[in-house]
Amino acid sequence: MRILLVEDEESIRDTVRLNLELEGYEVIATGNGRKALDLIGGQHFDLLLLDVMLPEVDGFSITEQVRLSNHEVPILLLTAKDMAQDRVTGLKKGADDYLTKPFNLEELLLRVSNLLRRSQRVKGEVLERFEFGNNQVNFETFEATTCHGDSIVLTKKEAMLLKLLVERKNEVVSRNQILQAVWGYDVFPSTRTIDNFILAFRKYFEQDAKNPRFFHSIRGVGYKFTL
Asked: What is the pTM for the complete model shown?
């Protein structure tokens, strides 16, 4: 699970980051709101942990901008403000939860865990099994039945990429988002590697691989699963 931590107070940022990493999360941290928007635009995150008072772009504005294109990622706001109106403002702009400073670290970790578990449960309910056309995929066992009636077993990377595309059906998923979600932060395969996965999906799941119905490459942008 990848978390973006945006907190301009260095001591708080370092403490929260360390505790999240001890829980097994991968944490990318910054103290600048504009830098946070750049990171969100180029990488995949499973949760956003945002301070409200930030340089350049505040946490409310980040939340508002994220929600224009992404309604799924959980957002937890951190702030020194303890006024009811600020809490209402954050929730109206799309935040999922709100924690005021000073906060108890154990409570913060529990809130993060609950938000991630809720998010993954919603995804899991939809995607344990998935059918499209004459194809069937079991994301738990990696087993699939192709449109040609063949039974195959996907590799873990194939299953992860297919699940990501299905979750974002009818949307273009950028190469950077795929790299972060499937290969991880420190591994950067070539564009050709991802292309080869898409070609394999067409071979498995398209009636006519040369004229794909489901799997599309968007030149210079990314890839799209159309349903």
From this structure: 0.59
